[in-house]
């Protein structure tokens, strides 16, 4: 079975109404990463010093050595940056979510006490602030468990949220399998939360951001002054706020780091943005646990059949009749590279029509010839497929006058004699009069034109049938 695991559709063209509390037009999620004391350091048993996200241009690991300048920059985040941010957020009465590295939290008892006193959510940011991409799965699972254990010991309660950041391809699955997280955020793929199914676990994902993030002060291209950070946050806010005002409320995540945004010249841009956002009505500043609880209540997950995960026999049983009496199309479609994007009507339609379009001319002709005459003998004998019977009845073709029936029979006979296949039209798109008018007009076409037209109508019929079955 050829399956593609990445989800390229998500909520699709019509995302759900977030329905934020109080009718808020936007949910602004402020995240403070607390990593100071959890970074790479030979004091922590690591092979080299840290080299990531600091104000040292072109920093590189120092194998087997302490990097005094790097250490002091991280220490600034704990000693000065954290408290400057704490005063800002508590002064504005804005709650935040902390991504807390467990070993960093253990080395910062006064900061943890201040987080708790402020009512901030302290989520887990892993055991150590290190790279996980090459970490064996068993070791990553062990470190996740140890991070939870140490976090619980230091904070007084287990974390309900998780974000690794420097993650592996296994991280999201492993944290979901742990089973105790209300939300995880190792994803950057949406403006709204969403659910993923991991085994029997329905796991909420609250996507995060790497662009509305002060890490851009330490990367190139990036921000060089607080005003640039403010401008980007303001423009993002304005776009999302306008979408919310039109009934499509979204979430706006902002990523912060004590050692970066905690510097005086950088925090000024953040302060300017917060004042700007607070000047608008309908702005909700939730912790991520608040978002998770709201989403679970308003948009609980409901499992449904997913075509990309169906067995071969189930797929054919479900979709073998979409193209009239042609289950071979579903049979071949099942072997294509299907994935989450094919779990909706448009996706299954794409797979089926790909098979139909690339089939031999004789096979496509056989599909056309499998369709019944409109209001013909099979309809009179009630021997249409369920799909065709419902479609013809919906257009009133099951209740024709004698004159109308005679006209359909005349047109059917003339059309088949000329083209070699029945007249095909997506009757759900037309009423009885429109169908007759199209019949009379198309009868004059040449067979090549009608073959192409009939094939397009077959695809349209398939699309309408699938829309009745899937989202």
Number of structurally distinct domains? 2
Nearest-integer average pLDDT: 92
Task: Provide the β-strand percentage band.
Answer: 5-15%
Please report the first level of CATH classification, the CATH class of the largest domain.
Alpha Beta
Helix amount:
40-55%
What's the SSE pattern? EHEHHEHEHEEEHEHHEHHHHHHHHHH
Number of helices: 18
Biggest sheet details: 5 strands, parallel
CA-atom Rg in angstroms: 30 Å
CATH evolutionary superfamily of the largest domain: Glycoside hydrolase/deacetylase
Number of strands: 9
Low-pLDDT residue spans: none
Distance between the amino and carboxyl termini = 23 Å
Domain NodB homology: 68-286
Organism: Frigidibacter mobilis
GO molecular function: hydrolase activity, acting on carbon-nitrogen (but not peptide) bonds
Family: Belongs to the polysaccharide deacetylase family.
């Amino acid at each position: 079975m050829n399956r593609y695991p990445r989800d390229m559709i998500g909520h699709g063209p019509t995302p759900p109404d977030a329905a934020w509390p109080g009718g808020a037009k936007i949910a602004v999620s402020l995240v403070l990463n607390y990593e100071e004391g959890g970074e790479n350091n030979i004091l922590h048993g690591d092979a080299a010093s840290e080299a990531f996200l600091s104000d040292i241009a072109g920093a590189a690991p120092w194998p087997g050595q302490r990097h005094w300048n790097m250490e002091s920059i991280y220490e600034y985040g704990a000693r000065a940056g954290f408290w400057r941010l704490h005063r800002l957020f508590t002064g504005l009465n804005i709650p935040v979510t902390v991504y807390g590295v467990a070993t960093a939290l253990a080395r910062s008892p006064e900061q943890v006490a201040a987080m708790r006193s402020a009512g901030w959510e302290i989520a887990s940011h892993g055991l150590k602030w290190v790279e996980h991409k090459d970490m064996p799965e068993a070791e990553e699972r062990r470190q996740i468990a140890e991070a939870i254990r140490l976090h619980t010991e230091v904070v007084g309660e287990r974390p309900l949220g998780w974000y690794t950041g420097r993650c592996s391809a296994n991280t999201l699955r492993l944290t979901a399998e742990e089973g105790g997280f209300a939300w995880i955020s190792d994803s950057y793929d949406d403006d709204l939360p969403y659910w993923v199914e991991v085994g029997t676990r329905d796991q909420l994902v609250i996507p995060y951001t790497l662009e509305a993030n002060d890490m851009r002060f330490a990367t190139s291209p990036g921000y060089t002054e607080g005003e640039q950070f403010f401008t980007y946050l303001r423009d993002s806010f304005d776009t999302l706020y306008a979408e919310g005002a039109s009934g499509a409320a979204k979430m706006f995540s902002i990523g912060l780091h004590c050692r970066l945004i905690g510097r005086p010249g950088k925090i000024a841009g953040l302060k300017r943005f917060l004042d700007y956002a607070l000047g608008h009505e309908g702005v909700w500043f939730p912790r991520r646990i608040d978002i998770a609880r709201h989403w679970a209540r308003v948009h609980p997950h409901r499992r449904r059949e997913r075509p990309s995960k169906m067995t071969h026999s189930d797929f054919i049983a479900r979709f073998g009749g979409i193209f009239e009496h042609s289950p071979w199309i579903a049979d071949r479609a099942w072997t294509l590279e299907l994935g989450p994007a094919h779990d909706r009507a448009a996706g299954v339609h794409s797979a089926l029509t790909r098979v139909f379009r690339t089939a031999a001319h004789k096979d496509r002709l056989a599909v056309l010839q499998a369709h019944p005459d409109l209001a013909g003998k099979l309809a009179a004998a009630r021997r249409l497929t369920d799909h065709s019977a419902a479609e013809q009845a919906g257009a009133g073709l099951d209740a024709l006058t004698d004159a109308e029936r005679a006209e359909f029979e005349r047109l059917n006979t003339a059309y088949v004699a000329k083209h070699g296949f029945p007249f095909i039209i997506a009757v759900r798109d037309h009423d009885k009069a429109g169908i007759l008018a199209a019949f009379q007009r198309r009868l004059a076409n040449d067979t090549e034109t009608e073959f192409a037209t009939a094939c397009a109508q077959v695809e349209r019929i398939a699309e309408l049938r699938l829309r009745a079955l899937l989202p």
